[in-house]
Amino acid sequence: MVSNPYTVLPQEAYWKPAVAQSDHTFLESIYKPKFTLRKDAKIATAGSCFAQHITKQLKSKGFNVLDVEQPPLGLPEDKHSKYGFSMYSARYGNIYTARQLCQLAEEVSGQFSPEDLVWEKDGRYFDSQRPAVEPEGLDSPEEVVAHRKYHLARVKHMFQTMDVFIFTLGLTEGWVHAPTGTVYPIAPGVIAGSFDPNVHTFKNFNSREIRSSLLQFCQIVRSLRTDKKVFRVLLTVSPVPLTATASGNHILLANTYSKSCLRAVAQELRDEKSFIDYFPSYEIITNPSARSAFYQDNLRSVRPEGVEVVMSHFFSSLPPSLRRDKPADSSMEAREPSSNESSADDDNIQCEEALLEAFAFQK
User: Fold this and answer.
1) Domain that holds residue 100
2) CA angle, 194 as apex, 188 and 200 as ends, to 5°?
3) Can you tell me the mean pLDDT for 219-225?
4) Any idea what the Cα angle at residue 197 is, between residues 191 and 203, rounded to 5°?
């Protein structure tokens, strides 16, 4: 006879054995996938900076990650990410907010045209929707428009052919062209363009708005797919904290709000929609039992070992034929990093939001 409902719960339901006394490099039963990710499935990736790690890891394990905007012949591989190539399945750069993702789908479908598309700096011209993909800018506004037209055509192809869409939710904060609602990946003036406080306004999206944007994105993509084949969505939440906040709150409060909103929406959609799943990269990295060991000294950038642990959880959830065993030397105690440790992989991660740190000491 069951005396109360807590006497029959599995070990992962209790904090002490599942967290406090657990091996933080491998948390049993933390991820129970709703659907199997086949190696031949056409996978599309997008999101905030942390999603670049996921893209690289999937490619390295032979998964069929789409790359619909491949780099030009002759561009060295170590320069790909500098120009927005090979980071994701298309050359859209980092997509930090759900609204930015939805806006891209609206533009691809012809429902929306972004305002103030072309930004200028020192006589060079940039795409305001992905200002970092051409770090030196282009020669003319017309060239920016032509590049974007090609980009949208390739993104449309990606939407129409993908089987699985992996999206990493990164931020709730963004900057908006107030008269039209156009959302930018970063504030005008940081990379290029001019900031006008009478036109450009700060927006901190709430959970209702984030949910609406994600569902609208899915609806638009479905409308673009002529065969009406169901695509699946795998959501993650970036464990990388905000670099800066324009909310007026302390950065810890702002970061907690942002991640809490994103995490709550991801869980709601995972529970409600059969085609949406959630992978807990956020929880694996921020797990208290790791005692921040997965972060670099800045307590923001995720160490390569942290990425390795995240992906070992992901791959271990796959069927045996696709499974990657837990690494024998995955324990973080196996080696102590130097205080300035980084890696080539870490150096190649492109993150416009990290540029905001430069303004912290200019007061």
Assistant:
1) 34-359
2) 55
3) 96
4) 80
